[in-house]
Specification:
The structure is a homodimer.
Chain A: E1 5-9, H1 14-25, E2 29-36, H2 43-55, E3 59-63, H3 98-113, E4 117-119, H4 135-148, E5 154-156, H5 164-173, H6 196-207, H7 213-219
Parallel strand pairs in A: 1-2, 1-4, 2-3, 4-5
Helix pairs in contact in A: 1-2, 1-5, 5-6
Chain lengths: 222, 222
């Protein structure tokens, strides 16, 4: 059978690193797409490149400029709010249209490079409430892609319904180099431990009964 | 009633210039988005800015880099094929994922600037056979936007089912400054008269019984 080709959206965080290893484990031919969108910090890009290197997979960095901002995650001016995982309001860290833009670029890449799937680490269980992380969004996106690519490209969301605990356990099983992953919204030397993303990650590791190797590494200055 | 705010995707061609004037005529508060994606020529951007100026509407130029190319319209190396309007194959001028990327950016803009509609001049009657110009594509995109923006943003495609002749007549009625519009895929001083886009435009003007003022202007070197 022909080897399926997939584009993996890689941010260098826990979830996207896990889906890269998931895709490799499934025998897909993988290519990583890393998006630079004027994030608050460049740590995310560096970590993503490192993860792709660890996995021995090629990557392309895609430069995106959003002239209109609209999120505390873009640039350095906005304040990242402390985590409120249970909040029902869309948090200020939501980047307008971000996943829609990422997936559109991935569609373009897949059409140009004749690839079959876009794999994204979206998660709708332990998540920050972003509209573009929900199952209904991906269901509709797949219907759109069917039209846009004439049935050639579709999205896979292997983590969509997993808890952070399950993702941590899956990452361990797949031997994801967790010490190199970076989830914090802030661009400090160490994870802040206070933002939504840090809180969700900590919860996952705690419930999985594991120590987070990224914390050990960073806090020990290794 | 609150004035509706719309983002108009403006390329400086006949269709997109017409929808800008259509939106103004309907009383919408309009903002133009002009995309620079390493087209073969910069005439398109200049013409689009000129049209926005003629209409007295603000515009934002969005810079998009597609590192993977994949179309004879991108860069200067590929050859633009002569027009074959009736062909059933997707032509080489198709830019992978282009409209999907444009609309994703427009979604981001509309969310950030609290706008209601994205207006695009897509046309599925006298068109080049691109998959992202068909009604089924826009129907699905609107369903996706409903999820992505939680019902706040949607697309309008006022030209989708109009013939080029009808578009030319509408443009005349709306007083679109047709002499400034540019449809040719090539980046020469004058429209090439041979590419798909030139042929479709010429057909529209011929059937509408009108001379194309852009040709008169350009060929006379005015």
């Amino acid at each position: 059978m022909k080897k399926r080709k997939v584009a993996v959206l890689l941010s260098g965080g826990l979830d996207s690193s896990t889906i890269l290893y998931w895709a490799i484990k499934r025998g897909y031919e993988t290519h990583c797409l890393i998006f630079s969108y004027n994030q608050r910090h460049s740590a995310e890009i560096r970590k993503a490149v490192k993860i792709a290197e660890c996995a021995g997979r090629p990557c392309t960095i895609v430069d995106i400029k959003l002239p209109w901002g609209g999120s505390s995650l873009i640039g350095r001016s906005g304040r990242i709010p402390p985590g409120k995982v249970s909040s029902k309001k869309i948090p200020s860290t939501y980047v307008p249209g971000r996943n829609t833009i990422f997936i559109s670029y991935a569609l373009s890449f897949c059409e140009a490079a004749k690839m079959d799937y876009i794999v994204i680490g979206a998660n709708a269980v332990d998540f920050s409430g972003y509209p573009d992380c929900r199952p209904a969004y991906y269901k509709e996106f797949n219907k759109l892609l069917k039209q846009a690519s004439l049935g050639k490209v579709s999205i896979k969301t292997p983590l969509l319904k997993k808890s952070k605990k399950e993702i941590v356990l899956l990452a361990r099983r797949l031997k994801v180099p967790l010490r190199h992953t970076w989830s914090c919204y802030e661009g400090g030397r160490y994870p802040c431990g206070k933002c939504d993303s840090c809180l969700l990650r900590a919860k996952g590791f705690r419930q999985a009964g594991m120590e987070d190797p990224a914390l050990r590494r960073n806090w020990a200055g290794q």
